[in-house]
Design brief:
Blueprint (H helix, E strand, L loop, with lengths): L2 H12 L3 H8 L3 H15 L4 E4 L2 E4 L1 H29 L3 E7 L8 H11 L3 E7 L2 H9 L5 E5 L7 E7 L3 E5 L17 E4 L5 H12 L5 E5 L3 H9 L5 E4 L11 E3 L10 E6 L5 H11 L7 E3 L4
Organism: Actinomyces bowdenii
GO molecular function: DNA binding; DNA-binding transcription factor activity
Keywords: DNA-binding, Transcription, Transcription regulation
Amino acid sequence: MELRHLIYFEAVVRHCGFTRAAEALHVAQPSVSAQIKQLERTLGVQLLIRTARGITLTPAGERLLHRTRRIMDELEAARQEMAAHAAALRGHVRIGATPVVGDLPLADLLARFRRTYPGVSLDLSSGLVDALLDRLAAAELDVVIGPLHAPDSRFITRTVADEHVVLITSTDDERSLTSVRQVAEEPFICLPQGSGLHDILMRCTAEEGFAPQILMATHSPHSIRDLVSTGMGVALVAESSTTTPGQPVKVHQLRHAPDHPPIAVFTAKSRTDTAVRALCDLIAGSGHAAGTELAVTR
């Protein structure tokens, strides 16, 4: 028994006769009749009875029709799935990512995506998460990867990685620091006011009972590390920013470290592009509980 036998059989039943089935299949009627006879010989049962009004199914034919239509449904589902897969092989995805993405191996994931979908071109830009989300809302980006500071009803959000806050000082510092209170008298280097890291610093120092002396604000987490390495000040940073290539600094694990928001993948609710979904599924499947989708309402 071959698949074409089942296709011809289902067509004869659906069109209530051999002539209409042949027309629908774009073949000659004798070919349809021959396929049905071959199917009956192979199975050793009669499936159809010709009548003046068309055809009637035998009990065996009824059972085979039930299974055949299940097979046809699976074939159609497979066709649709492969069509979606093929559509994802072409396109252009614009990605915005913050410099801090936790333990998410973003470069490796993008390389894997390109190997899987060579027909999809990628554009990657960097920035602070609020600015990137504004660009996502304006349809200037397709995907944003960065810290989830607060729910935003404009986006579908899936958490993909964890992040932690550490204290960094220059490598000349011989201390083993475990509290931000121990550097209360020293200048801090931080991201600008309004950024998530700035908020973390202000909240943490307030809990420790002091206001930080911010010597310099910079838009780049990498610049924070560079400046701290010179001994200009200390900083609270995301731990992942200390593991990338750059100037050496001393990393201090805090006993009561402030919470850092998880890293998330953001997409606009209005976008259903197949290539975008494929990229987000790959990233979400790589970490944090295989990508936890959040119901984001505000």
